[in-house]
Amino acid sequence: MDFQTFLRRIPKVDLHCHLVGTLRPQTLAQLASTHGLALPRPAETLYDFADFYDFLDVLRLASASVRTADDFSRVTYEALQDGHSAGNLRHAELLFNPQYFYPYGVSYRTMVDGMLDGMAGAERDFGVSALLVASFDRMIDAAGAMQILDDVLAYRKPQVVGIGLDGAERTGPPQRFAEVYARAGAAGLKRTAHVCEDNQTLEEAPPSNYAICRDLLKCDRLDHGYNLLADPAMVMRARDEGLYFNTCTITSVTRNLERRRASIAKMVDLGLNVTLNTDDPVMFKTDIAHSYQVLFQSQPQWGVARARAFSLDGVAASWLDDTTKAAL
Ligand code: HPA
Ligand code: ZN
Which three-class secondary structure state does DSSP give residue 89? Predict the structure, then answer.
């Protein structure tokens, strides 16, 4: 078996995958039409982004097409089906942003019931498991985030294991969410946050956000992390703490692709704990196998051992319980 085939076949976990970023263009077009939603350009070209902020706008727009429990079930099922057929995905942790759906009259219960239904179907049909992470786009204020947490806790489901923070880092400093994170932690939810993403400048997404996410938000793991490389002392701290970074090979910003790959490799070389994920696979025209293959093509010195390490670190960093992890 050649190495590219090995990379496609090795069992994988995807811990950083946004539900709406998995929307197939045809599914998006159908759902938009059903709900009378006009897309600004054809679904096929909707995923060609001018920049990071254009991507975030499309993500929010696409969210308006997912409204009923059946819609949520369908897109969740298709996300896991696509991961299974593309690259032997065994387990996914899907981020969803309640605030993107509320404006269209969708209740928290509708979202979660639909996603759980899709997850049950994918487990039955493909043997792929999944957990859910309720995420806040940080353009929201602290009170809005607290209301979402109210909903999460009022309709508690074991599959909704944690909370996350995403969106543009310049629109909401992590400290804004300290109380929300403290309450979530006290209620037994896990905590992650997007931090130090390289589509934003060092001023917008600074390495110091790492310390805030750890000291104030008490995050159990983090998403992205590349801008941390600008601060060697913070890298040392992260390495000593053994924190997992859920990195993603592919980004919405094409000109940053090479730098992104180099950053992930550097993080590995510096001894950080790194997992490999898709972020927004369909919107970024990737899948979990492609995300491995492209990174490994940029690092010809890496072989089977490194691929196994990514795969196993994904399991270790997941929020499955220990018994389920051992069985994976
Ligand atoms: N960064 C910030 N917000 C996001 C992302 C991302 O990569 N994907 C979906 N929301
Ligand atoms: Zn993300």
Answer: strand
209-250 tens-digit pLDDT: 999 999 999 999 999 999 999 999 999 999 999 999 999 999
Integer angstrom CA distances of residue 72 from 43, 93, 125 = 19, 15, 17
- Counting ligand 1 atoms within 8 A of each CB, the residue from 58, 195, 197 with the most, and so the one to mutate, is 197
Q: For residue 197, indicate whether it is catalytic.
A: yes
pLDDT at residue 255 tops 90: no
Closest ligand relative to 62 C-alpha: 1
pLDDT of residue 41: 86
Query: Where do the H-state alpha helices sit in the chain?
Result: 3-9, 25-34, 43-46, 52-63, 69-87, 98-101, 108-126, 142-154, 178-186, 208-215, 232-241, 257-269, 288-298, 304-317, 322-327
Domains of the chain: 3-318 (3.20.20.140)
16, containing H or E segment: strand 12-18
Report pLDDT digits (tens) over 81-116: 999 999 999 999 999 999 999 999 999 999 999 999
Residue showing tokens 């159908």: 30
Contact between 169 and 197 (Cβ < 8 Å): yes
Report the distance separating Cα 4 and Cα 294, nearest Å: 10
